[in-house]
């Protein structure tokens, strides 16, 4: 047994899987809300991609992943992660998850955009994420080696001699430090930086901020995925209308009843970035956009998609009879903390798994339902690596003289929504950098979220091409070869200052 626990920050699929797989090593699981709440994993309707069907293969799943990733995936990393599929699914089943099966007991595979096969496993239909997280959370609660610290925020990673020595946390207004030489970040996405997102609003990229402030390298920060079909309501976060609805044949129409994607390759099931741009283009010209499931699903809608049916009904829409109004919204971040396929970051003692990490699997555009898979595979991989190594010596932690201010993204949202959205251009990105830099450099509540938004703006400014989810209207073409960009926080700040100084445009955003 160790004396010094592994600290895991975050309780989505990646964090919970890592915690369970680390047993019997001691783990402290730190989570901002109650365990398994406020996590995008629990909201996943789509399910988990798994090339386990008779007509499917690892090679086919890899080919679809690389194709959706638009030439920007790291093929070796993608291959390796997808190879972990069978183990991850078995692990989930062993921890109580019951994937949907047909009357013969065979797994049922659904179809989603840009998959060439039906390969999406669901548990409890479109309530997959909730079912998976409920089962994992229950297993975690029953595992004696795991201590859960809920309602607790990790505010800084503590370093001694450039290695992880602890975590500075705040719980109920009380600051304390937790001694650990191994931290796994599993904090999820960045949707809280945007006004329109399908993620829990409190998730603005805390793990990326923790890693960046500790000196770890970030990668591919410009690649933010916008889901084409969030329900167009005033609710925030925006409820999702799963791609699986289009997978079952629902079509997209505008308020002139035109099926505007019909000439696009793949039509409604083209890669997500393509469909999101097509919808955004309609909305920019004043059209409204709808998902029409009346013919494809009709009265079967409520039994096939009970969660979505309830969401629609609470907005006064009956999908069997009415068009569903949709719009794109921030949904997933392909970029994040640079890691290898064991989840190791550039900082000794720091791992990152799940959405906050950039492994190279997703490239410029994540293939639908590859994220829950990656979360589970990488949670297992990080745990396996940690268990295979002797425990590092505990280092004395630095003395804490000040608690960083509680992070609040409110001042950042309008900047991200306006400048870091589906369509970008140089002047708009420079305006974002000018607006964000003072926030990022201040010692105030907006600083932590501003650092993440600034990193996205700087990476996006420096990528002078359009690829996957990153669309530059001033550089609409792809370059011949895609280069992965990596920067640490000091380089990001330095680059931002250079851009800001060389392009003195108005600071108001
Ligand atoms: C969806 O159900 O459309 C979302 C699935 C995903 O984001 O992977």
In CATH's first tier, which class of the largest domain applies? Alpha Beta
- Specify Rg, calculated over alpha carbons: 22 Å
The name CATH uses for the topology of the largest domain is FAD/NAD(P)-binding domain
Largest sheet: 5 strands, parallel
List the helices and strands and how they pair.
Elements lengths: L5 E4 L3 H10 L4 E4 L9 H4 L4 E2 L8 H11 L6 H9 L1 H10 L14 E2 L9 E2 L6 H14 L4 E4 L2 E9 L2 E9 L2 E6 L3 E3 L20 H8 L4 E2 L4 E8 L11 H5 L3 E4 L17 H13 L4 E4 L8 H4 L1 H9 L9 E10 L2 E3 L11 E3 L4 E2 L11 H19 L21 H10 L3 E2 L1 H16 L5 H16 L8 E2 L13 E2 L1 H14 L7
Parallel strand pairs: 1-2, 1-10, 2-6, 10-17, 16-18, 19-20
Antiparallel strand pairs: 3-5, 4-5, 7-8, 8-9, 11-16, 11-21, 12-15, 13-14, 14-15
Helix pairs in contact: 1-6, 1-12, 3-4, 5-12, 13-14, 14-15, 14-16, 15-16
The structure holds succinic acid.
Summarize the structure.
Residues 6-372 form the FAD-dependent oxidoreductase 2 FAD-binding domain. The chain has 509 residues and is of the alpha/beta class.
């Amino acid at each position: 047994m160790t004396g010094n626990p592994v600290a895991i920050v975050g309780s989505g699929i990646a964090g919970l899987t890592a915690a369970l797989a680390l047993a019997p090593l001691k783990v402290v699981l730190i989570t901002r809300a109650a365990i398994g709440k406020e996590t995008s994993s629990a909201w996943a309707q789509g399910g988990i991609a798994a090339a386990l069907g008779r007509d499917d293969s690892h090679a086919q799943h890899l080919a679809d992943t690389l194709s959706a990733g638009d030439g920007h995936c790291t093929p070796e990393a993608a291959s390796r992660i997808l190879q972990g599929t069978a183990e991850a699914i078995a692990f989930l089943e062993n921890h109580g998850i019951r994937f949907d099966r047909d009357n013969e007991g065979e797994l049922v595979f659904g179809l989603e955009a840009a998959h060439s096969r039906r390969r999406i496993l669901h548990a409890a239909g479109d309530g997959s994420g909730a079912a998976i997280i409920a089962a994992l959370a229950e297993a975690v609660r029953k595992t004696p080696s795991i201590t859960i610290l809920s309602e607790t925020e990790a505010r800084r990673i503590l370093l001694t001699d450039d290695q992880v020595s602890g975590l500075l946390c705040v719980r109920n207004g009380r600051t304390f430090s937790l001694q650990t030489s191994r931290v796994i970040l599993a904090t999820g996405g960045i949707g809280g930086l945007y006004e329109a997102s399908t993620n829990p609003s409190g998730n603005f990229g805390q793990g990326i901020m923790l890693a960046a402030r500790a000196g770890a390298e970030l990668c591919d920060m410009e690649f933010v995925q916008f889901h084409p079909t969030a329900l167009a309501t005033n609710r925030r976060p925006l409820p999702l209308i799963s791609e699986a609805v289009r997978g079952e044949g629902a079509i997209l129409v505008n308020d002139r009843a035109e099926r505007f994607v019909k000439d696009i390759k793949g039509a409604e099931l083209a890669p997500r970035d393509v469909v999101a741009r097509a919808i955004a283009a309609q909305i920019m010209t004043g059209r409204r956009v709808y998902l029409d499931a009346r013919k494809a699903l009709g009265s079967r809608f409520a039994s096939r998609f009970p969660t979505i049916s309830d969401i629609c009904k609470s907005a006064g829409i009956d999908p069997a009879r009415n068009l569903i109004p949709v719009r794109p919204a921030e949904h997933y971040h392909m970029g994040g903390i640079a890691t290898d396929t064991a989840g190791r970051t550039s900082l000794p003692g720091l791992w990152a798994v799940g959405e906050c990490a950039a492994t190279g699997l997703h490239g410029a555009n994540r293939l639908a339902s590859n994220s829950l898979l990656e979360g589970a595979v990488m949670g297992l991989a990080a745990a396996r690596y940690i268990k295979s190594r002797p425990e590092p010596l505990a280092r004395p932690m630095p003395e804490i003289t000040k608690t960083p201010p509680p992070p609040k993204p409110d001042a950042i949202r309008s900047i991200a929504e306006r400048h870091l959205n589906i369509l970008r251009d140089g002047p708009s990105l420079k305006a974002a950098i000018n607006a964000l830099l003072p926030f990022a450099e201040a010692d105030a509540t907006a600083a932590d979220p501003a650092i993440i938004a600034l990193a996205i703006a700087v990476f996006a400014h420096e990528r002078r091409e359009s690829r996957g989810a990153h669309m530059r209207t001033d550089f609409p073409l792809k370059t011949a070869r895609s280069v992965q960009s990596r920067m640490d926080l000091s380089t990001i700040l330095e680059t931002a200052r250079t851009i800001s100084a060389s392009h003195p445009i108005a600071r108001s955003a």
